[in-house]
């Protein structure tokens, strides 16, 4: 089933031997061998992007392209610890309100202007704090960025900012844009958003709508001798079956976003030409949710919510429907996040339909003459085939305990409006994307006070002062050990109250041609610079 | 009796009739053969046909019995076909009859409206209607009927134009019959044969339109329709092709049956083919 390293090497050598120069190439084909320079890597993109500037839009689809062209202050290494990129060192004042970054010297923008602290100051205040999704929450208490010299940026916060949270978050939310390009313009409408100018290893070349994006080698890159590749081409193929055909024909080398059908992933896994794995996507966990609308009196009863969770056989679903590419989640923090995953397992509600029926009876919803207790409308998000399967499975499972479920489908805009703005749902299900730190991506699903209409936030009509307090305390706690404990307490609390339920966790699955070398070697590799990626012949 | 003999003279029409009766029998026996909810989880997902005696046609990606969905789906497809056809033909007759009978300004006005509908591809219009009014089985069926009326309307108008000046109509006028009586009691029965033939085309199209909607995941997911099953199998097309192929064959045969029956009716109703 799994491809061993030996198989991989044999295939690599075989490929190399079939090429023209057998006396040099066998070495190049070894993963740890001498990297080969040159070549074009073609990557699959599922959808069009309106913006390619990751300083304005935090989304995997943007990072896949933007992170090769623009760079962040820090990246994460194989263990998930911060790694210097545009920032070379950092320190926090004892009260946690001042964080100082030393910036890399001798870095140039693609248009030749030097990179300085003024760029960091501008991006932080004008983009991260004002427009970047997740960034606006993260930088809510950022007061100012001082620039005592061109290579020092001092972030001043009005409330303590945990350094480990900031660094982990900045890997995704710390991309720096050039001040001289954006200053004095409408930031959101600036042409550089679709033709980005950065400091990264590749320079933007062209974007043909609906077809491809090309970036070429930056010869002036500050990491001398990098990148290895001459060019990266992203081909936009929305149709999943066409994308699978393209990767099998060798037209594309990598499909990074987990965008291929699970059935095909299962098939490609058995081929020796590809690596099908979640390696290098540890920083991007996806969780399938069950979202409850507390305005329905039945769902406002905790026993009913527990009964719904207990009625669904999640392990069976993961094994038979998701080809084992997923596993049951234990709470809002996925197990792929070792820094925050609680050491003590929080309350769980394993599959137990008898208990579920007893809970419903106890709550006063006994079966009517037709075997039904009550009926609910379920809105599935229209992205991801797993959501379609999961919503059908929920419908089938809840039917067994006497809850009739009507599935109501909408397109993406209709789903977001009906669930998060109009609250026109009973149950909803979609994805929660975990991004390395609960404060970045997860607590907004539970914290009260989100404006009506903000997608993927607490719009359930549920509020707990205790949970709000824990979330706030953890966000401002600068001691990492205490912070971890606060999140463990928080998970314990929300797993007890069940305002919503994260049922399944899985990592994005990338399909990568074995010709690519040095890939998926950091936890957010698909969103990294690909400077050390090379292509064996 | 003569009618039936004339109908059966065409072997294609006979085959069509047998197929259609078969589909009707499937729809009728669905509750007897598969009493369980066809959308309930029945077993391990994606079992191939003929491997498990419990699931003769295998299971789909959600672990539902494909055979049960085919039998129950026959009802939905026939229901959508019949109701949508009735809606389309009824609308078409009313518009076409009024336009053809009165002529003049009313005719111009109604025909421009019909042409406006005809210039928009019917499937696009259907997508818009479903996006606006939702995708329950009732709205989908009505929407299919609404996008299918222009062609029957033009057909009805053409028939009325040729019939309105015939002697029997003039006789009715001199007898002082009301317009509505002339239209519905005198002209319409004579205009019906081509409309009945055309109804079979509309019905076949209606079944196909619903399948196309379901393929795009825009039909009602709470009923077991053949189109839904095809849409459901799209994700596993490369590996478990039978999930889409089996309902595809069912749709093909039903549409073929309806078309053949329509062809047979055309021959049987055509007075020129009547033996003297």
Describe, in short, the structure shown.
Chain A has 17 helices and 22 strands. With 537 residues, chain A is α+β, with helices and mostly antiparallel strands.
Topology:
The complex is a heterodimer of chains A (537) and B (276).
Chain A (H helix, E strand, L loop, with lengths): L4 H14 L6 H4 L11 E6 L14 H10 L4 E3 L5 E3 L2 E6 L5 E6 L13 H12 L6 H4 L3 E5 L5 E6 L5 H11 L5 H4 L19 E7 L3 E6 L13 E6 L3 H9 L5 E2 L6 H7 L5 E4 L7 E8 L9 H9 L3 H7 L6 E2 L24 H10 L11 E7 L4 H16 L2 E5 L4 H10 L5 E3 L1 E4 L3 H4 L23 H11 L4 H18 L2 E8 L2 E4 L2 E2 L16 E2 L2
Helix pairs in contact in A: 10-12, 16-17
Chain B lengths: L1 H7 L2 H23 L32 H37 L1 H16 L2 H12 L3 H11 L2 H14 L3 H9 L3 H37 L10 H8 L8 H28 L7
Helix pairs in contact in B: 1-11, 2-3, 2-11, 3-4, 3-6, 3-7, 3-9, 3-11, 4-7, 5-6, 7-9, 8-9, 9-10, 9-11, 10-11
Q: What does it look like?
A:
The complex is a heterodimer of chains A (537) and B (276). With 537 residues, chain A is α+β, with helices and mostly antiparallel strands. Among the domains of chain A are: 202-282, D-Maltodextrin-Binding Protein, domain 2; 283-506, Dipeptide-binding Protein, Domain 3 (Dipeptide-binding Protein, domain 3, Roll), CATH 3.10.105. Chain A is built from 17 helices and 22 strands. Chain A has helices at 5-18, 25-28, 60-69, 117-128, 135-138, 163-173, 179-182, 240-248, 262-268, 302-310, 314-320, 353-362, 385-400, 412-421, 438-441, 465-475, 480-497, and strands at residues 40-45, 74-76, 82-84, 87-92, 98-103, 142-146, 152-157, 202-208, 212-217, 231-236, 254-255, 274-277, 285-292, 327-328, 374-380, 403-407, 427-429, 431-434, 500-507, 510-513, 516-517, 534-535. In chain A, strands 13, 14, 15, 16, 17, 18 and 19 form a seven-stranded mixed sheet that branches. A four-stranded mixed sheet of chain A has the order 1-10-9-8, with helices on one face. In chain A, a hairpin with a 3-residue loop joins strand 8 and strand 9. In chain A, helix 10 runs antiparallel to helix 12 (353-362) and helix 16 (465-475) runs antiparallel to helix 17. The longest helix of chain A has 18 residues, at 480-497. Chain B is an all-alpha fold. Chain B has one domain (2-26, 58-273): MetI-like (MetI-like fold). Helices cover 73% and strands 0% of the residues of chain B. Chain B has eleven helices and no strands. Chain B has helices spanning 2-8, 11-33, 66-102, 104-119, 122-133, 137-147, 150-163, 167-175, 179-215, 226-233, 242-269. In chain B, helix 3 (66-102) packs parallel to helix 7 (150-163) and helix 8 packs across helix 9. The model of chain B has no long low-confidence stretch (mean pLDDT 88). At the A-B interface, helix 8, helix 9 and helix 13 of A face loops of B.
């Amino acid at each position: 089933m799994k491809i061993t390293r030996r198989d991989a090497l044999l295939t690599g050598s075989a490929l190399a031997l079939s090429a023209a120069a057998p006396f040099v190439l066998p070495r190049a084909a070894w993963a740890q061998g001498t990297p080969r320079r040159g070549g074009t890597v073609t990557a699959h993109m599922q959808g069009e992007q309106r913006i390619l500037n990751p300083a304005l839009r935090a989304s995997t689809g943007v990072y896949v392209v933007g992170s090769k062209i623009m760079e962040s202050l820090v990246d994460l290494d194989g263990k998930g610890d911060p790694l210097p990129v545009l920032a070379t060192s950092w320190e926090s004042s004892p009260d946690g309100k001042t964080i100082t970054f030393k910036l890399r010297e001798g870095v140039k923008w693609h248009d030749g202007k030097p990179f300085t602290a003024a760029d960091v100051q501008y991006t932080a205040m004008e983009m991260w704090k004002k427009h970047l999704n997740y960034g606006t929450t993260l930088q809510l208490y950022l007061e100012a960025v001082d620039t005592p010299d061109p290579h020092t940026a001092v972030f001043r916060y009005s409330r303590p900012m945990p350094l480990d949270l900031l660094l982990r978050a900045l890997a995704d939310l710390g991309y720096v844009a050039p001040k001289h390009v954006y200053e004095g313009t409408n930031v959101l409408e600036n042409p550089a958003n679709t033709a980005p100018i950065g400091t990264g290893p590749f320079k933007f070349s062209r974007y043909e709508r609906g077809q491809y994006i090309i970036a070429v080698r930056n010869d002036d890159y500050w990491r001398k001798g990098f990148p290895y590749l001459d060019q990266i081409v992203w081909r936009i193929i929305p149709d999943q079956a066409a994308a699978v055909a393209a990767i099998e024909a060798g037209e594309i080398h990598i499909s990074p976003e987990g965008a291929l059908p699970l059935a095909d992933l299962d098939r490609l896994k058995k081929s020796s030409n590809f690596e099908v794995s979640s390696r290098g996507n540890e920083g991007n966990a996806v969780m399938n949710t069950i979202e409850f609308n507390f305005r329905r009196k039945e769902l406002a009863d905790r026993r009913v919510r527990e009964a719904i969770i207990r009625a669904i056989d999640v392990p069976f679903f993961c094994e038979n429907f998701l080809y084992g590419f997923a596993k049951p989640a234990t709470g809002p923090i996925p197990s792929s996040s070792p820094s925050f995953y609680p050491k003590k397992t929080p309350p769980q509600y394993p599959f137990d339909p008898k208990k579920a029926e007893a809970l419903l009876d106890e709550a006063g919803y006994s079966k009517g003459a037709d075997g039904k207790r009550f009926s609910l409308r379920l809105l599935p998000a229209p992205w991801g085939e797993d959501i379609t399967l999961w919503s059908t499975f929920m419908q089938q499972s809840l039917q067994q305990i006497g809850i009739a479920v009507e599935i109501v489908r909408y397109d993406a805009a209709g789903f977001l409006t009906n669930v998060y703005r109009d609250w026109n749902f009973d149950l909803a299900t979609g994805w929660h994307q975990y991004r390395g730190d609960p404060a970045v991506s997860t607590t907004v699903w539970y914290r009260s006070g989100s404006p009506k209409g903000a997608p993927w936030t607490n719009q359930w009509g549920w509020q707990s002062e205790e949970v709000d307090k824990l979330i706030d305390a953890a966000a401002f706690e600068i001691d990492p050990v205490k912070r971890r404990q606060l999140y463990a307490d928080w998970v314990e609390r929300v797993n007890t109250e069940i305002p919503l339920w994260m049922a399944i966790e899985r990592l994005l699955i990338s399909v990568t041609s074995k010709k690519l070398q040095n890939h998926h070697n950091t936890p957010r590799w698909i969103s990294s610079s690909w400077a050390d990626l090379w292509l064996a012949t | 009796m003569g009618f039936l003999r004339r109908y059966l003279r065409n072997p294609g029409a006979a085959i069509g009739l047998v197929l259609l009766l078969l589909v009707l029998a499937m729809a009728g026996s669905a509750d007897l053969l598969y009493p369980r909810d066809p959308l309930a989880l029945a077993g391990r997902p994606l079992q191939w046909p003929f491997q498990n005696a419990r699931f003769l046609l295998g299971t789909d990606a959600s672990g539902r019995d494909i055979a049960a969905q085919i039998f129950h789906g026959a009802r939905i497809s026939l229901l959508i076909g019949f109701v949508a056809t009735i809606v389309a033909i009824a609308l078409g007759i009313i518009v076409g009859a009024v336009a053809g009978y009165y002529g003049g300004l009313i005719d111009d006005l109604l025909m421009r409206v019909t042409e406006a509908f005809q210039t928009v591809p019917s499937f696009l219009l259907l997508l818009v209607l479903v996006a606006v009014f939702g995708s329950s089985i009732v709205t989908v069926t009505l929407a299919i009927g609404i996008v299918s009326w222009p062609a029957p309307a033009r057909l009805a108008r053409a028939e009325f134009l040729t019939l309105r000046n015939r002697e029997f109509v003039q006789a009715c006028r001199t007898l002082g019959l009301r317009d509505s009586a002339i239209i519905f009691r005198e002209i319409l029965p004579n205009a019906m044969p081509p409309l009945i033939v055309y109804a079979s085309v509309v019905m076949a199209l209606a079944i196909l339109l619903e399948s196309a909607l379901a393929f795009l995941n825009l039909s009602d997911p709470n009923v077991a329709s053949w189109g839904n099953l095809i849409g459901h199998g799209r994700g596993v097309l490369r590996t478990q092709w039978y999930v889409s192929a089996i309902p595809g064959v069912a749709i093909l045969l039903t549409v073929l049956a309806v078309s053949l029956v329509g062809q047979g009716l055309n021959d049987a109703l055509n007075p020129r083919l009547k033996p003297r």
